[in-house]
């Protein structure tokens, strides 16, 4: 189901991207027709793609091109170009399901694995905002709505069964990216995989402990089992705080190249895990001038509000938009309202349980796996960083082992304050 | 994802099937080369297909051809011919995964939606054997092994993730047949659908009660939710006692045209539900000469043994054949054995819970939905039949509402003796 570079694919450069875009009329006119006035910068900081910022006198665009290999690992780690197609397909569905919360797509070229889209400005990556201690008033509400709308409307509660089954089959083709998640999130951190790294020697003992922690490893593999066989809805698939761009009054979700039909909790948990990680990292960001305590509390408030908004909007959509084949109105009438409400509550309880488990898996891999995050990496002093990282691992362990017992977002927050708080 | 009749499809008759098969060398030589010595009978009693028994001097074959519409409903109910392809694909996988338990396929023609296969003789359909009161010594063991081997080896415990994802996508194309199950099993019995029927007036009140039984309807839709989004393994998809052919010393599973990747409990539950239904129907089969009490007990013993064999073989395969990406041996060693064993037990507990829920849904639809079964239909006296049917409905309700609390097959049998036994 994967594909490799075809004859029509060639890697763009800051020069050739101009030649390419000048022939795409809608993009050229948006930038300004005189190509000599365009400037191009390659701004990608990721692993997988080239990202060109193309600025003209009239406007700016992003041109994102998939590379046929994992950038950081060189050409020995091929990654299917088809992920650009799946990202594009996911973006079009997200735009329909959660209007205005993704960048507008201006042009897509499947052969070139290239998507040209709206340049978001003055947006910054949420993760960078969290490291800098910036509050975003709309964040929790916007992300809660995004989660509820994309996840509900991509599920059997909303979609026609035939359409959903065809879409599941389509996105099953994004196998190469699912394999990356399966390896990087659920597997490699728990054995001696080549690219694992951690703050050493401070965490050496903790890592050894994790590798012999049977209960923890089993719990992670229970989450992996769900990742591979619970096709509840179309997921973003990589919804960490690096996939969110924010301003004071706008929130956009970018980069759904890992999209596939999976468990709703994987998207919810990705956000939740990144909030909790950012919360714990605050003690490492603290300075004499700014203890970051108020900001830490704000992050936890956002985590709880994101869930609450998700839950409320999901309930709202269940009551107003149940157009799929589950719990149809010709079978479930007003007299059944109490029972269907309990079914909805049980469903959301299950999503929460999954979210907690996936959040924990995602937190741990950022400390002991291959791909780390700025929240922790920006803490220069290794002892101080390691102290935060130990709290991340300890909280993650409690979360995943107690995921069935935690009955609401407030329980998660309480546990986080208990285990994740600085001394 | 469905397809309709192509230019290369034509419905066969007892005459044209001979013309067709004479040109298939392997089949012709098996039957005997002189076509004049062949005899053909159309023996299909199903809804969906033509089934020709072609007998020659040297041997016999079955030629099964899909019809482009639901036979009993006429040409107004189209059904995709592609199901013959999915049946063929499922048969090849089942033969590999549970060797010797399916009919041998001799020839497949996708355009003609035609499969030519081994004629099983002196096998009879299990359902007919259960109605006649015949014991089959190998039945429970064979079916338990079939379930464990096909379900384990079609899951992420065994398959390579990429292969499984591609196969999930392939079988998502069998949408038309999944839609039949969704409608016929989970939906139509619970509202005033056109083709529902039941023993009337005896069951009128009971049916009205079911339609206003909120808890029951919710439970059935919880099972439907799992049917649509829990892609654990490749299922047979229609594993009732009419899909099993038996002799004293052989057991074969036929007709996997409903195959798709779904919850393991759907196959296990189909068999379980049909055992329980057959058990309850025995009181209707009883005569002055034969009270069928011993046979009733034998059926319950088979139900329990089928589960026990399934569970034991599933555990065995888990320990000896875990070649997939879940719980790999480079992460889980001997020190983790207790924890992984608990994970396996929890997984099987979940399969049991699903099996009980699906068994119940399948039992109910045979009494109040469109498609009934000989076990009950053969009870000529409507009062006597209705008495059995009420017990079927009552047991099914208890099973589905208590599916989380029943902790083993023996609990299911005990509940069946309590609620399902004749007065």
Task: Please outline the major beta sheet of chain A.
Answer: 5 strands, antiparallel
Stretches of chain A where pLDDT falls below 50 for ≥5 residues? none
Please indicate the percent range of residues of chain A in DSSP E strands (runs of 2 or more): 5-15%
The second-level CATH architecture of the largest domain in chain A is: Alpha-Beta Complex
Would you summarize the structure shown here?
The structure is a homodimer of 423-residue chains. Chain A contains 15 helices and ten strands.
3D structure, described in words:
2 copies of one chain form a homodimer. Chain A has 423 residues and is an alpha+beta fold. Helix content of chain A is 52%, strand content 10%. Chain A has helices at 16-22, 25-31, 82-97, 126-132, 139-153, 161-172, 175-187, 204-211, 214-229, 264-285, 293-320, 337-368, 374-377, 382-401, 409-420, and strands at 39-42, 49-55, 60-66, 105-109, 114-118, 124-125, 233-235, 244-247, 250-253, 260-262. In chain A, the strands form 3 sheets. Chain A has a 5-stranded antiparallel sheet, with helices on both faces. In chain A, strands 6-8-9 form a 3-stranded antiparallel sheet. A two-stranded antiparallel ribbon of chain A has the order 7-10. At the A-B interface, α6, α7, α9 and α12 of A face α6, α7, α9 and α12 of B.
């Amino acid at each position: 189901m994967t594909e490799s570079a075809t004859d029509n694919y060639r890697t763009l450069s800051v020069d050739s991207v101009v030649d390419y875009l000048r022939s795409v009329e809608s993009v050229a006119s948006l930038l300004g027709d005189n190509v000599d006035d365009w400037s191009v910068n390659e701004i990608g900081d990721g692993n997988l793609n080239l990202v060109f910022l193309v600025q003209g006198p009239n406007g700016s665009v992003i041109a994102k091109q998939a590379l046929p290999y994992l950038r950081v690992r060189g050409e020995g780690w091929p990654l299917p170009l088809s992920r650009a197609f799946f990202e594009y397909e996911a973006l079009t569905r997200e735009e329909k399901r959660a209007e205005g919360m993704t960048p507008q797509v201006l042009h897509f070229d499947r052969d070139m694995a290239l998507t040209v889209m709206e340049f978001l400005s003055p947006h910054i990556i949420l993760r960078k905002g969290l490291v800098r201690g910036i509050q975003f008033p709309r964040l929790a509400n916007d992300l809660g709505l995004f989660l509820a709308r994309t996840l509900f409307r991509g599920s059997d509660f909303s979609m026609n069964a035939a359409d959903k089954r065809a879409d599941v089959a389509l996105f099953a083709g994004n196998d190469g990216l699912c394999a990356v998640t399966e390896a990087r999130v659920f597997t490699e951190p728990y054995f001696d995989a080549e690219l694992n790294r951690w703050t050493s020697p401070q965490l050496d003992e903790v890592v050894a402990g994790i590798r012999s922690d049977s209960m923890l490893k089993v719990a992670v593999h229970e989450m992996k089992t769900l990742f591979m066989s619970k096709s509840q809805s179309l997921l973003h698939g990589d919804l960490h705080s690096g996939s969110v761009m924010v301003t004071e009054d706008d929130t956009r979700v970018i980069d759904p190249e890992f999209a596939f039909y999976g468990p709703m909790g994987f998207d919810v948990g990705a956000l939740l895990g990144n909030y909790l990680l950012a919360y714990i990292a605050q003690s490492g960001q603290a300075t004499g001038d700014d203890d970051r305590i108020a900001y830490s509390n704000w992050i936890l408030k956002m985590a709880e509000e994101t869930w609450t908004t998700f839950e409320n909007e999901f309930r709202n959509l269940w009551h107003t938009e149940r157009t799929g084949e589950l719990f149809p109105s010709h079978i479930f009438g007003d007299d059944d309202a109490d029972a269907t409400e309990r079914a909805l509550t049980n469903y959301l309880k299950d999503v929460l349980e999954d979210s907690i488990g996936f959040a924990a898996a995602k937190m741990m891999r950022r400390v002991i796996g291959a791909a780390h995050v700025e929240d922790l990496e920006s803490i220069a002093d290794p002892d101080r960083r390691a102290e935060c990282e130990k709290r991340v691992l300890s909280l993650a362990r409690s979360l995943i082992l107690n995921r069935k017992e935690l009955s609401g977002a407030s329980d998660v927050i309480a546990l986080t304050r208990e285990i994740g708080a600085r001394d």
